[in-house]
Design a protein that fits this description.
The complex is a heterotrimer of chains A (219), B (59) and C (265). The two termini of chain A are 26 Å apart. Chain A is built from ten helices and no strands. Chain A is an all-alpha fold and 219 residues long. By secondary structure, chain B is mainly α. Chain B has one helix and no strands. Chain B is rod-shaped. Chain B starts with 7 loop residues before the first helix and ends in a 14-residue tail after the last helix. Chain C has eight helices and no strands. Chain C starts with a helix and ends with a helix. Classes of the chains: A mainly alpha (219), B mainly alpha (59), C mainly alpha (265). At the A-C interface, helix 8, helix 9 and helix 10 of A face helix 6 and helix 7 of C.
């Protein structure tokens, strides 16, 4: 547990000190959200109706784009090899990395989401609900993305391949996340429970797949 | 010819597309096997032996 | 390829004898002609039945598309199941034939998934008035198609065959775990947004004159898959043998050059 916390703290400190990765993901998110109205036209009624969908999709794309580097830097400077022979099992290395991705990428994205919602004329009383679905759902997304990043680690076209591998797996997250705000009776409580179950399942299962992939790429 | 009603074209295109895909798969599978068998025979003719012939492979 | 040459020495249990690549080549070579003939006969019977069957009282003649759409969709799922089982076999026992099976099944499964999508959309146009409706079943099959593409792309991105096989196996298992979740979520999504009146394609009332050709076609498609899968597996085994030969030859050359150099020095 101590080794796990130490690794997590190290990753968080590194991310905060560099800051460029967080900044890039935030920039991408806001640009994606603002470029969609340019394609749809400035119809405020339409935008406010589809705002949850736009925000969720932009969020997923930002998360995918930023996860590519999750293990890459540590692999390049050899610290991943050092970690692998250390006391921490690969499953926990993968879990710590995925959690670090959630804390350093998804949490900042969630924080700026109300602002992005403002751009799309989102109803104010829907914003807390949207934030709740994002907070619950994106934890699982970070873990799925972590497994994908471990699988494509060190591949030539890895950055291009990664979205192809994991975007189909994001479909249930997107469906439950946006479905929660559909306004149908009982949809919110039902889908946030489903989203939570899905997230917990990913948190529990994906580190094992990621660990297999990590060991494979370190051979 | 069968009379398949107003939507005959959809039915024929469906069957045509399925036949095309199955045919493409069959050509790929048969061609690949034949190509690899040829390649293996070629290699063995040039003196590369499988494990059973180990020790005597001089090329 | 290094794996493949090793199998002859490890664990001589009954399973590995049966699943030994050499035994597989011999047995599959024997049964393939019979399987191919059986497939052709079943297709002849099934297609005759498919075109002689009376039109459906609701869908009319377009119901004939069902005879290829439903079996293709069935194969799309079956071949992913085979890939998942083979992948588990490869990851747990490192059996090279399991990897050969997983690799050979992927393009075949992807193609039948594509056939299911094409025939589904051609069936949908007369029924729903649009080539593509976001029907729960079509949408799940579309996502399944993307999973196949990812599997094939990942394998192609890795040069070393053993590594490629294991990476693809991990991804296949992640996909297999997620498919029921995707299916459930898409159904949920569909009921959330669906206007109530959509004709169900496979209602519980299929007339028996339509049912037996469908069953024959399903068996014919399954046999077709087995034939194609065996053929592709044989090609893959031969390819790995060639690669192993060349690799051994190159190593031998290098070793010989090394000893000559040492002798000259």
């Amino acid at each position: 547990m101590n080794a796990f916390l130490a690794l997590l703290t190290r990753d968080l400190t590194l991310a905060l000190r560099q800051g460029s990765a967080i900044g890039t993901a935030l920039g991408f998110y806001l640009i994606a959200v603002s470029i969609i109205p340019l394609g749809l036209g400035p119809d405020l009624a339409l935008l406010s109706r589809i705002a949850p969908g736009i925000l969720w999709i932009s969020f997923l794309l930002s998360a995918v784009l930023s996860v590519d580097a999750l293990f890459q830097e540590d692999r390049d400077d050899g610290s991943l090899d050092a970690l692998a022979i250390g006391p921490l099992p690969s499953e926990l290395i993968a879990a710590s990395k995925s959690l670090a991705h959630w804390l350093t990428t998804c949490v900042p994205l969630i924080v700026v989401t109300p602002l992005a919602g403002l751009l799309l004329n989102m109803e104010l009383n829907a914003v807390p609900k949207l934030l709740a679905t994002l907070a619950v759902g994106t934890l699982g997304i970070s873990f799925v993305a972590g497994a994908g990043a471990a699988l494509t680690l060190g591949l030539r076209r890895g950055a291009l391949l990664l979205p192809l591998l994991i975007l189909p797996l994001f479909a249930p997250f997107l469906i439950f996340g946006v479905g929660a705000l559909s306004g149908a009776a009982g949809a919110f409580s039902q889908s946030i429970l489903l989203l939570g179950a899905l997230s917990l399942f990913s948190v529990a299962a994906m580190p094992f797949a990621a660990a297999l992939a990590l060991r494979l790429s370190l051979e | 010819m069968l009379d398949l009603g107003p939507h005959a074209a959809f039915i024929w295109i469906s069957y045509g597309a399925a036949a095309f895909c199955v045919l493409a798969l069959a050509i790929w599978a048969w061609g690949d096997e034949r190509g690899q068998a040829k390649r293996l025979a070629d290699l063995e003719r040039r003196g590369l032996k499988r494990r059973s012939g180990q020790g005597q492979d001089k090329s | 390829m290094a794996d493949l040459t090793n199998t002859e020495t490890i664990r001589p249990g009954w399973f590995s004898t049966l699943a030994n690549p050499t035994t597989f080549m011999r047995l599959s070579g024997k049964v393939l002609p019979w399987l191919a003939v059986a497939t052709l006969v079943l297709f002849a019977v099934g297609l005759t039945g498919a075109f002689l069957a009376p039109p459906d009282y609701q869908q009319g003649e377009t119901v004939r598309i069902m005879f290829i759409h439903v079996p293709s969709a069935w194969l799309a799922m079956m071949s992913y199941t085979i890939i998942a089982i083979s992948s588990a076999g490869y990851l747990i026992w490192r059996h090279p034939l399991a990897d050969v099976s997983a690799k050979a099944a992927a393009p075949i499964g992807a193609t039948f998934t594509l056939v299911a999508l094409i025939t589904g959309s051609l069936w949908g146009k007369p029924m729903w008035g649009a080539y593509w409706v976001w029907d729960a079943r079509l949408t799940s099959v579309l996502i399944l198609f993307f999973l196949y593409l990812g599997l094939i792309a990942l394998r192609q991105a890795i040069d070393e065959p053993g590594r490629a096989g294991r990476a693809a196996a991990i991804l296949a298992l992640i996909g297999a775990v997620n498919i029921p979740i995707i299916k459930y979520s898409v159904n949920w999504w569909n009921t959330l947004h669906q206007p109530a009146s959509v004709i169900r394609a496979d209602g519980p009332t299929i007339h028996s004159s339509l049912l037996w050709p469908l069953l024959v076609m399903a068996i014919a498609f399954t046999l077709l898959f087995v034939v194609l899968h065996f053929k592709a597996m044989r090609a893959e085994i031969l390819r790995r043998r060639c690669d192993a030969l060349i690799a051994r030859h190159v190593r031998g050359d290098a070793a010989r050059a090394g000893t000559e150099e040492a002798a000259n020095a």
